[in-house]
Write a structure and sequence with these properties.
Blueprint (H helix, E strand, L loop, with lengths): L2 H14 L3 E5 L2 H4 L19 H4 L2 H6 L1 H15 L6 H12 L4 E4 L5 H5 L5 E2 L2 E8 L33 E5 L8 H11 L4 E5 L11 H7 L3 E5 L13 E3 L3 H15 L1
Parallel strand pairs: 1-2, 1-6, 2-3, 6-7, 7-8
Antiparallel strand pairs: 4-5
Helix pairs in contact: 1-10, 6-10
The chain binds 2'-O-acetyl adenosine-5-diphosphoribose (OAD).
């Protein structure tokens, strides 16, 4: 079946869906210049496996190394702007207000494109908090108000003096319970899930399309890679970059309305 046919079918599914969920991964931000999680890191970081750095144990063992890794990722993300894929999802939500995005990403490009009520499973890389959440979980810390020797690694928490860390979920950590509750509530009623730009390797996000499928819902995947873990259960696989495909899906919807 041609891509145009598949896109037309996708727009029909969206139009007839009672509750639309979207699950995004790093791929949706790739065309904004943000490397995906499993893209090879560059320069100094090429020698490290990100999954070995994004853990509380790595941080306790070498706080400066992990802090510097996140400072590098924040620097890389700073110039990033939402791409047409982010904007298409925001426009889709304006037309279907009950639509909710569940994202694994730690950038804020969905919100900056205009999407609202984004369900953030893995936190936000722009934020920081006390490693020990000394004032309660979480204890946000605004590092712009702290003077410290930046070559020494993370700043001290202004409350307890211990380490400050990025406000992202690390391997081995629980996801924010309120975000998980919101995601489950959405998935219990979703009869269509658009899965955009994820390898589908990390649970519980990776399990979410299966929940919709098990309840008889429709799974549509957008990914240049046709062998992701989601592809095997996708009713429709739109092979290509989301920054190109999502605007085409939106255009097909507008054409038909
Ligand atoms: P990955 O790097 O695992 O996968 C990115 C996916 O995006 C791949 O399937 C690519 O084929 C696809 N992709 C690449 N370019 C694309 C484009 N232009 N448009 C659409 N898709 C594109 O990133 P995630 O699946 O997001 O968790 O990784 C999931 C989680 O694994 C991350 O949130 C992170 C990591 O462990 C934590 O840090 C807790």
């Amino acid at each position: 079946m041609s891509m145009d046919e598949l896109i037309k079918r996708t727009s029909n599914h969206i139009r007839t869906a009672r509750q639309l969920a979207v699950l995004t991964g790093a791929g949706v931000s790739k065309e904004s210049g943000v490397p995906t999680f499993r893209d090879a890191q560059e320069g100094l970081w090429a020698q490290f496996d990100p999954t070995q750095l994004a853990t509380p144990f790595a941080f306790m063992e070498n706080p400066k190394l992990v802090w510097d890794f996140y400072e590098y990722r924040r620097e890389r993300m700073r110039p990033a702007q939402p791409n047409p894929g982010h904007y298409a999802l925001a426009e889709l939500q304006r037309r279907y207000p009950s639509l909710r995005i569940i994202t694994q990403n730690v950038d804020d490009l969905h919100e900056r494109a205009g999407s609202t009520e984004v369900i953030r499973l893995h936190g936000n890389i722009a934020g920081n908090k006390c490693f020990f959440n000394c004032q309660g979980d979480p204890t946000p810390v605004d590092v712009s108000q702290i003077e410290w020797d930046k070559t020494s690694g993370p700043p001290p928490c202004p409350h307890c003096g211990k380490w400050v860390r990025p406000s992202v979920v690390w391997f081995g950590e629980m996801l924010p319970s309120e975000q998980v509750r919101r995601a489950k509530e959405l998935l219990n009623s979703a009869d269509l899930i658009l899965v955009v730009g994820t390898s589908g390797l990390v649970s519980p996000a990776a399990d979410m399309p299966y929940l919709v499928k098990q309840r008889g819902g429709v799974v549509i995947e957008i990914n240049p890679d046709s062998s992701s873990a989601i592809a095997r259960i996708a009713d429709i696989h739109l092979q290509g970059p989301s920054g190109e495909i999502l605007p085409q899906v939106l255009a097909a919807l507008l054409d038909a309305s």
